[in-house]
Design a protein that fits this description.
Elements (H helix, E strand, L loop, with lengths): L1 H11 L10 E5 L6 H8 L9 H13 L3 E9 L2 E8 L2 E8 L6 H8 L10 H17 L2 E2 L2 E8 L4 E9 L2 E2 L1 E8 L6 H5 L26 H14 L6 E2 L3 E5 L4 E9 L5 E8 L7 H6 L11 H16 L7 E9 L4 E9 L5 E8 L6 H5 L12 H13 L3 E12 L2 E10 L3 E10 L3 E10 L8 E7 L4 E10 L7 E13 L3 E16 L3 E16 L7 H7 L1 E15 L9 E17 L1 H5 L6 E2 L1 E14 L1 H4 L4 E13 L3 E2 L40 E14 L4 E13 L6 E14 L2 E10 L11 E5 L4
Parallel strand pairs: 1-3, 4-7, 9-12, 13-15, 16-18, 28-31
Antiparallel strand pairs: 2-3, 5-8, 6-7, 10-12, 11-12, 14-15, 17-18, 19-20, 19-36, 20-21, 21-22, 22-23, 23-24, 24-25, 25-26, 26-27, 27-29, 29-30, 30-32, 32-33, 33-34, 34-35, 35-36
């Protein structure tokens, strides 16, 4: 550019004496109007001809990025600017990169798209981006050629022709000098690991070299040593030796481990009013006598920063001072907290919510303009928004606008809340089952949840309508009602119900919710034609009654996400008092027995604990523990209808068995006798969930289920199962594909190896 400017002024410089500019012309402009060009040139008619000023004007034009060449002519007092503009990109095509539009989407992410002006620097950056991305996928020596073809006047077509290199497999990692830590420990956190046996299978390591991560792997090895107390460990940059005949590689790390340190004295230095250093020290996870662990130290620093943040110090800094004693192999720690100024909230700015109203989002933000900053409130606000299920992603950042004021930038990415849900399974009795519903958790962005559902399976015909407003007039109160018509053919009887309920709830404290309600059900149950048509079966399964109920519930929920929580706990207890009125079958057949319908109390509870290990092992592994229990109490001389009793099996209890198939039997000695249901039921589940495809929002969870049920005690019947669940956050809602194996099934049990559901949580 400077060379072109110099050549221009060699031609006209001698003519610029004391002349004045009488006219300014622009030729070849397309992207800029003459008035805008005049502002950029910053030269006016009547100004003196000034070579330095004209030189600067040319620089100003080049900075706009539109022009390939610029030169200036002078005709008397007339300045004529000539422009040769860059051509526009009419089309971009990426060949050989991947399937579909992957390559073009990647280029768009760096700002190169159709309609942009062709620029050599940006094209070089695009080539580098494509190569880097392929290197991260294990391709070595990738070549990208760029060809351009004119398209009409002023436009070109750009083609990136990608010739993928070969994938290099890591056959061996050598940690030369390592003796105190095992190879498995050192390799666990690396991006580049040895190829596993059958490494082509999902969840196993393929051994592909990720070139872009090699330089960072040395720091990961160093970090592993720091987690085990080796503060003086030296780890060299990796040396990769490639055998191009087999496209395999060995990677060497030179290591000097040094000594292992334990923690000596731990202290905190701070002068923040309201913070007690002794209390903070007792909350530290890295304490005197422990082997030094860099991960625990970082966790403690974060805790101290949050403690200062809870008192309004949004920009508090925690600096660890480490004093090593190599002879005694001890490291003394002192955390220095620098508070800075107290900060207040100036404004809360919300973005990304195309549907959800601002006021709905503000319900769940515990900081408002004028409040003092509080780190816990900020964290809880993010979790509360995640629990709504309205958003795929929630991010809350602080924007400093002065020394003592910040704006909160609440950025959300909405997810589909209106869903068409489906579920089903396959069993030896039910065969294929399907159901569907239409629901929206966030109607018109109002936060109101409504649904309309129906069941289309061969053994059921169900309809339901429900409506829940979780924040009536933006208050702490909620209101909900439901109406349903249900006809379901169980294994031994068919239940026909028409019912509804009304609930009023309130939020107490930040994570505690309570509700009360009332319900009514008209039940007509009859024995199936193919059931054992005995007196006892008829007595058990023929129930015609009306039930009036009162409900009460209490719930605690501090999880961080609605569908895939990685942190927090759910605990709930529910109570139902029910009064039954109807004609008992005993009276119908003239048995003369006095026991009939009466009253009962049902108590149930559930507990869920979620823990993500990403901070510990740098991998999105989620551990889950879930438990449920239900107990019913009724009078000794009062009949409890079969429709109110408890059964077990299927999703929500013990997978691997048909739904409602596990139950006490009329004749315990006959495994094929009719099921009479129980009064006590409990189940527990342990799960480990790992990512399957982040792009498709799919995970896989491995589980173990254990359940028990009985009439007089919980453990009269026990069953267990194990298996895997593919969890998919689809555009239609959450879908779970369950593959289960019954572990201790007995003669007469109905087992099922596959089920699927949609729209469930917990």
């Amino acid at each position: 550019m400077l060379k072109k400017i110099a050549l221009s002024w060699m031609l006209i410089g001698s003519l610029l004496l004391a002349q004045k500019v009488t006219q300014i012309k622009f030729e070849g402009l397309a992207h800029l109007s003459p008035s805008v060009a005049l502002e950029i040139a910053d030269i006016r008619v009547g100004d003196q001809m000034d070579s330095a000023k004209i030189n600067q004007s040319i620089k100003n034009f080049f900075e706009q990025g539109y022009f390939k060449d610029i030169w200036v002519d002078k005709q008397g007092g007339v300045l004529i600017y000539h422009f040769e503009e860059k051509v526009a990109i009419a089309n971009i095509q990426v060949k050989g990169y991947g399937s579909g539009d992957d390559g073009e989407k990647l280029l768009q992410s760096i700002g190169l798209k159709k309609g942009d002006l062709y620029d050599d620097a940006r094209i070089k950056k695009a080539k580098k981006t494509l190569i880097s991305r392929l290197e991260s996928q294990g391709y070595y020596d990738t070549v990208v050629d760029v060809t351009t073809t004119p398209v009409g006047k002023g436009s070109i077509s750009v083609v990136f022709d990608v010739n993928k290199g070969e994938k290099i497999k890591i056959k061996k990692l050598n940690f030369i000098g390592a003796s105190e830590l095992s190879k498995g420990d050192l390799e666990r956190d690396l991006a580049n690991q040895e190829e596993d046996f059958l490494g082509w299978l999902p969840f196993l390591n393929s051994g592909d070299v990720k070139v872009d991560q090699l330089e960072y792997d040395a720091y990961r090895v160093k970090d592993t040593y720091m987690k085990h107390g080796y503060l003086d460990a030296y780890v060299s940059k990796p040396l990769m030796r490639v055998d191009y005949s087999s496209y395999s590689a060995e990677i060497d790390y030179q290591i000097k481990e040094g000594v292992r340190y334990r923690v000596g004295e731990v202290s905190i230095a701070q002068d923040i009013e309201g913070l007690d250093s002794e209390d903070l020290t007792s909350d530290l996870s890295l304490r005197k006598g422990h082997i030094f662990n860099i991960t625990r130290m970082r966790k403690d620093m974060k805790m101290l920063q949050e403690a200062a943040g809870n008192l309004g110090y949004a920009y508090a800094k925690v600096s660890p001072q480490m004093r090593k004693n190599a002879e005694e192999k001890i490291i003394n720690l002192q955390y220095i907290i620098q508070s800075g100024m107290k900060v207040t909230i100036n404004d809360v700015l919300i973005s990304g919510n195309d549907s959800t109203k601002d006021r709905v989002i503000r319900r769940y933000i515990y900081l408002a303009p004028g409040d003092s900053f509080n780190a816990t409130d900020l964290k809880d606000s993010k979790r509360a928004l995640g629990r709504t299920g309205f958003f795929e992603k929630v991010d809350i950042q602080s924007q400093r606008i002065s020394a003592d004021k910040i704006n909160l930038l609440v950025k959300v990415k909405e997810t589909a809340t209106g869903t068409i849900s489906a579920g089903g399974g396959y069993g030896s009795y039910e065969g294929l089952m399907l159901n569907a519903s239409v629901s929206d958790k966030n109607i018109f962005g109002s936060g109101i949840n409504a649904s309309l559902g129906f069941d289309i399976s061969a053994i059921s015909t169900n309809y339901n309508v429900s409506f829940v407003n979780p924040k009536i007039w933006d208050s702490m109160y909620s209101l909900g009602f439901s109406v349903y018509k249900k006809e379901y053919e169980y294994i031994d009887y068919t239940q026909d119900q028409l019912g509804g309920s009304l609930n009023l709830g309130r939020q107490f404290f930040r994570h505690v919710y309570a509700s009360v309600g009332a319900g009514y059900v008209d039940n007509q149950s009859t024995i199936n034609e193919d059931a054992n048509d005995t007196y006892f079966d008829a007595l058990l399964y023929n129930d015609q009654y009306q039930k009036t109920s009162l409900f009460a519930s209490l719930k605690f929920d501090n999880t961080d996400d609605y569908y895939t929580p990685r942190e927090g706990m759910i605990a709930a207890v529910n109570f139902e008092y029910a009064s039954l009125d109807g004609d008992d079958f005993n009276a119908t057949i003239g048995s003369g027995e006095e026991n009939g319908y009466g009253e009962f109390i049902k108590a149930s509870g559930k507990f869920g604990l979620y823990y993500g290990l990403n901070d510990w092992i740098d991998y999105d592994l989620i551990l889950r523990f879930k438990a449920r229990a239900t107990m019913i109490e009724s009078g000794d001389n009062e009949k409890l209808p079969i429709g109110e009793k408890l059964f077990m099996g299927g999703i929500g209890s013990v997978r691997g068995y048909d739904p409602y198939s596990i139950s006490p039997l009329i004749d315990p000695n006959d495994p094929y006798s009719s099921r009479k249901g129980g009064k006590k039921r409990a189940s527990a589940t342990v799960e480990a969930s790992i990512p399957l495809s982040e792009a498709a929002k799919m995970r896989v969870a491995f589980f173990y289920d254990y359940g028990m049920i009985g009439e007089d005690s919980f453990n009269e019947i026990t069953r267990s199962s194990a298996g895997a669940v593919i969890e998919w956050q689809s555009a239609f809602g959450p879908i779970n594909l369950v593959f289960a194996q019954a572990l201790d099934d007995k003669i007469g049990d109905r087992t099922s190896t596959f089920e699927f559901s949609m729209g469930t949580k917990f």
